[in-house]
Every structure is written in structure tokens, then in C-alpha cells.
Amino acid sequence: MERASGADCRGGTNRTVAIADWSRQLPVMAAATNQRLGFHDRQRARAMNIRDRQKDGRTENKTTMNGNEMITEELCKDLDMQDGEMREFQVQGQSILLVRNNGVFSAVGNKCSHYGAPLSKGVLVGDRVRCPWHGACFNVKNGDIEEFPGLDSLPCFTVKVENGSVCIVTSKMELESSKRVKSMSSRSAGDRSAVVMVGAGPAALVCAETLRQEGYTGRIVLVTRERHIPYDRTKLSKAMNAKAVEIYLRPIEFYKEHDLEVWTEKQAVSINTDEAKVKFKDGSFLQYSQLLIATGSRPRELTCPGATLQNVFYLRSPEDANAISEAAAGKNVVIMGSSFIATGRRHFALQQCKSPSTTLTLCKIRQPWT
Ligand SMILES: Cc1cc2nc3c(=O)[nH]c(=O)nc-3n(C[C@H](O)[C@H](O)[C@H](O)COP(=O)(O)OP(=O)(O)OC[C@H]3O[C@@H](n4cnc5c(N)ncnc54)[C@H](O)[C@@H]3O)c2cc1C
Ligand code: FES
């Protein structure tokens, strides 16, 4: 059983501390963090950028400060791009998305924080770019994720326009970070409220993270009847032999750092709204101030004769996926259901099985929308 309890872990994350320290040391930062820099830091940054600029237009300039390499690079001329346009640029081997909107340039990472799609191939509407693969949305001014799937925001870079040249000003360290976790509040001992989430899938996880991002300091408990902390269920039909730990949405340390409790193998059996209590199968209960029910859906079970035979599987958990993968290797397989999940399952089956179409092993694929 895996359990991440936030009880003994308070304060900011190591990552947050590292970024904060870094922001004090560097003169030029991403637009988002730049706001935190003082006047003298910004003056110093401006002076350094001017000093760094070299003779021939599109030149890359580097300065080393506190061991971190600063980079100023011209991306294009301001007249090269029109309002509402976005373009991909390579800077030091990293893909950057440059956007021009209402005459203002902004730059963010070009790789979607979900599965890495190139955002330059997506759709830009106002200050928002929509990912071409699964539709996540990011604010191009600050890189924040505004619609899911995906959990993380994009790195955001300073853009300067001088003498008609559009330049990105950043550091090597910043360029290499493809994702950014929004800053989050911690639990406060004085806050006695508790948000309980029945279910620990992506819906509950995003809700928990959003609460912390928006400053909620009470207790947050995610409860799942499964034995795993939140994982990416969508991968189950694509990599059926993947171990659960390989598809966790966040590492276990993340929950400790942000005071998010995850109770595993706890099945909710009833809710008493008068007393604000969730009761579990093992007889225990949990008091809540606010309750979120995010229990997802489940497969419609087969009712035909033979449905309970040994080699009939349902695909919902990592254990189901691993069992199907093992049982199906070199066998003939029938997949019941023919929509998206079955397509992913079929792709895997083509690689693993003798045939994905005739009967020996039978699996029914969960249709999440039924
Ligand atoms: C094999 C497979 C492939 C998929 N592929 C895709 C895809 O390619 N693209 C896509 O967009 N979507 C896909 N989906 C759908 C996607 O996984 C779901 O839309 C998503 O997981 C829903 O998230 P959720 O948090 O609402 O619920 P879920 O991820 O279903 O999580 C529900 C949570 O509730 C818990 N729970 C349920 N009942 C109780 C209870 N009584 N007590 C305690 N805990 C309980 C569960 O343990 C779980 O933690 C796929 C689904 C499957 C099964
Ligand atoms: S890769 Fe962008 S939303 Fe999935």
C-alpha cells in the first residue's frame, strides 16, 4: 500500500526554493518571475543586455553570472511578425514559441507540458494557445496552464524589442526547463478546514493542486480504493505492460511537499451530509468541510454466457493492463468495443499477440463515456 501523508512536511518545495534563490541572483528572469525583481536588479539587467549586444544583428550573446549562462538572442525583426501570429524558434537547441499580440511580443516554451506536442502547430486565440493534440490551453503571456489535460505550466521568457530587433533574454538553466510547476501554498496549522476528495484520478489531483495554487491552507485528502497514488489511466491501453509507478502523474514526494494526503485502498461506502462524514468499507470515517466526488466511471460489464470465464478481462487499472498483457502474449485476442480505447489496445495487441481478432483471450475495454 502506498500512502503519501502531508502531516510532517511543511514549507516550500526544494524546487521552489531553488528557483527563488536563483531569482535573487540573476538580473534577468522570465517575465513571470521578473515582476519579483527589484528596481536595481532590473537596471542591472538592462545594462547587461546592452553591454552584451554584439555587432551583427542576429548574434547570440552570453554572460556567465553565478555559474549560470545568460543568453540574449535575436529571434526576428518586429516587422517580420503580424498581430495574432506565432512562430517557433530554436534557441540553444530548445524550442521557443514567440507570439505577437496587440503589438506586444511574448515567448514561452513550445512543448506542451502534457505529452510534448509542438504548440506552434496549435491554435492561437487572443492570449491563449490551444495544443493541437489533446486541447490543453496555455496563456502565452505568462505560460500558465488554463485548460487541461496536463498539470504543468510552460516556462516563460523575457522578450525585448530594441531598434526593431526582437530578442529573447534568458538563462541556460531557464531554457532547459520544459515545464513549470505553479507556486503553491502550504498547509497552515491554524486552518482547521478539510477538503476531502473521494477518488484520486486526474480530476481530483487537478482540483487539489488548484486549491493549493489559489492559496488554500486547510487539509486536503484524496481517497482512492485503488492501491496507487494518482496515475495516468490513459496510458493503460497504450503501454499495457507499464508498471503503475511508471505512469504516476506526480512522484510520491510531490504530495509530501505540498501537504496533500493520499489515502489508498480506502473504499467509500456512504456519505452522511448532515454530519459531513465519509464512511469507508473498513468502518473508518473522515470528516470534511467540503467534499468532492471524483470517482470516474466504470466499464459496463458483459452479461452474455461465458462472461465470467477465466480469460475475460476488463481494462481499468494497471493490474488489469499487466494481466491482459501477460495472458495475451502469443495468443489470439478478441477486443469487445471498437472506439478509442479499443484502438489503443489493438495497437498494443498487434505487437504482442498472435492475432488481435479471434477468440481465446477476451477483454472488454472500458468506455469512459458510457
Ligand atoms: C484503458 C483506458 C484508456 C483511456 N485512454 C484515454 C485517452 O487516450 N484519452 C482520453 O482523453 N481519455 C482516456 N481514457 C479516459 C480517462 O482515463 C478518464 O477520462 C480519466 O481517467 C477520468 O479521470 P477522473 O479523475 O474523473 O476518474 P478516474 O481516473 O476514473 O479516477 C476515479 C478515482 O475514483 C476512485 N474511486 C472510485 N470509486 C471509489 C470509492 N467508492 N471509494 C474510493 N475511491 C473510489 C478510483 O479508485 C480512482 O482513484 C482512458 C480510460 C481507460 C480506462
Ligand atoms: S500533448 Fe498537448 S494536450 Fe496532450
Automatic annotation (TrEMBL):
It holds the Pfam family Rieske. Keywords: 2Fe-2S, FAD, Flavoprotein, Iron, Iron-sulfur, Metal-binding, Oxidoreductase. CDD domains: Rieske_AIFL_N. Residues 73-168 form the Rieske domain. PANTHER family: APOPTOSIS-INDUCING FACTOR 1 (PTHR43557), RIESKE DOMAIN-CONTAINING PROTEIN (PTHR43557:SF7). InterPro entries: FAD-oxidoreductase/Apoptosis, FAD/NAD-bd_sf, FAD/NAD-binding_dom, Rieske_2Fe-2S, Rieske_2Fe-2S_sf. This is Rieske domain-containing protein. Gene3D superfamilies: FAD/NAD(P)-binding domain (3.50.50.60), Rieske [2Fe-2S] iron-sulphur domain (2.102.10.10). It comes from the Eukaryota.
